[in-house]
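Sample 3 of the quickstart, ligand flavin-adenine dinucleotide:
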Amino acid sequence: MEKEPDVGWGCSKANTAIIHPGHEEEPDVHPLRARLCKEGNTLWRQWARELDIPVKWPGELMVFFDGEEKTAKKYIKLAKLNKIPGVRVVYRDELLQMDSSIGPSALGAIYAPTAGMISPFEAVIAVVENAVDNGVRLLTEANVREVKVVDKRVRGVETTRGFIEADIIINAAGLYSDKVSRMAGVNSGFTVRPRRGEYFLFDENVKVKPKKILHTTPTPITKGVYAITTVHGNLMIGPTAEDLPIDAKDESSTSEKGLEYLWKESEKLLKELPPRTKVIRTFAGLRPEPPEGHWRIEAHDDPWGFVNAAGIRSPGFASAPAIAYYVLNLIKDKYSVNLAKKKRWNPYRSDIVRVKGRPLQEVDELIRKNPEYGEIVCCCKTVSKAEVVKAIERMKKIGVKTVTIDGIKFRTRAGLGMCQGSFCRWRVALLISQYVGVSLHEVVVKNDTYGIGEVKVLLNQ
Ligand SMILES: Cc1cc2nc3c(=O)[nH]c(=O)nc-3n(C[C@H](O)[C@H](O)[C@H](O)COP(=O)(O)OP(=O)(O)OC[C@H]3O[C@@H](n4cnc5c(N)ncnc54)[C@H](O)[C@@H]3O)c2cc1C
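Result:
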C-alpha cells in the first residue's frame, strides 16, 4: 500500500544515496544499525547486479581539518568493532593522490573503501518491479487510514482504496510510521520527527567531479556534508541537518540559511567550486528521525501480526535489503509461520534500454528495430520516445493508477538534466496523454495537473 501515485516518493527519493560501509555506527548504542548497515552494503552489491540498478563503489574519504583528527580517528576504532574492511587513515599527500578535488586545508581523511553510491529512486522502482514480477500486488494512492484489530489480532487496513484484509501488517511508512503505529495501538509515545537535509545539484558539464565520496567529519546529528559525483555524473553537495516541527512532514522547501551553510562547508571541502550558475536544482529531503536515533523494528504480540519497520533514519537506505531479511526472520520466529521460498522466484529484472551512453552503432541498431529510439524527447539526458513509452508500460504493469510526469522522470531521467524539464515536460505530457488515454489537461506532474492543452476546461472544475 502506497499513499502516493507512485513508489519511492518518500525519503527514499531525496537523500545522499550512499551505501555506507558501516564504520560510522556505534555498535553498543545502535547495534541494529551497525549490523544491518554492514550486511546491507554486501547485499546491495548483489541486488544492484541482479536488478540492474545504477550503482558505483568508489570508496569514501571522511576529510578532517585542523582540530578534527581525533574525532575522525574514532571511526577507525568503530570500523574494527564492526569488522568493516580496509578502513584506515590517509594523510595529505596520499589524500590528494586519491582525489585531487579536495581543498588545500585538509589534513587527512578516514578512507573507507567499501562505500558505494546508488540511484535511490531507480533502486526503489527496480525492487518493486521485481516484487510485482514475483507476485506482489502494489496499490498506489492507497493511504492507510486505520489498522483494524479484532481480539488483539490485526485483520487488515482501511485505505483510500478500500479495506485490505491481512494477517500480518508491516509498517514501513517512513515519516508517518509513528502515525501508523498509533493506528495499531502500538508505541503510543513513539514519534518520528522530520529532519531536513538540503542539497545543491550541479549540471553534468562542470569540471569539479570528485572521484571518491567526500564528506566532512560527522557531528552528533549528521554524517557531515558530502560532495559527490552522482551515479548519473552530476556534482551534488549536501545535506544540511535541521530538525523541523513534528507536523512539518510534507515540507520540501530549501532555505537560504541552509544553502549558504552548504556552500561554505563545500568551499572548505573542495579545492574549487563551480559557479552558482551551474546549479541546476536545489532540493530537500526529510529524514524520519526516531527518538535517540533508534530504529523500531519489532514484531508485536498485541496486536498479533503487527510488525514495525519504523523510524528508519540513515543509514536506512544502505541497510534496506538487510532490514528486509531481518523483518522476514522476525515474522518467522515470532509468529511461527511457515514461509516457503517460491519455486519460481525470479531474482532478475532489467532496466529500460537507454540511448544515452551507448555506442552509436548500437543506437543505430536500436533505431532500425524501433524508430522511436531515434526520436529524442529530452535533449539534456538524451532520452528517446521509445524509453518514455516503455516507462509508461512498466508503470501500468506494476499497477500505478495515475501515470505522472514525475514517474516518467524517475524512470527515464527525462527532466533531470540542465533545463530541468523546460524542454521536455510538455512532450512527456503529450506522450502520457496519447498512451494512457487521458486528456492533456488532465496529465499530472506529481500530485497535481500540469495545466496544458485545453486548459479552459479547468475553469469549470
Ligand atoms: C537528507 C537525507 C539524506 C540521507 N542520506 C542517506 C544515505 O546517504 N544513505 C542511507 O543509507 N540513508 C540515507 N538517508 C536515510 C534514508 O533515506 C532512509 O533511511 C530511507 O529512505 C527510509 O526508507 P523508508 O522506506 O523507511 O521510508 P520512505 O522511503 O519514506 O517510504 C515510506 C513510504 O510510505 C508511504 N506512506 C507513508 N504513510 C503512509 C500511509 N498512511 N499509507 C500508505 N503509504 C504511506 C510514503 O509515501 C513512502 O513512500 C537519508 C535521508 C535523508 C532525508
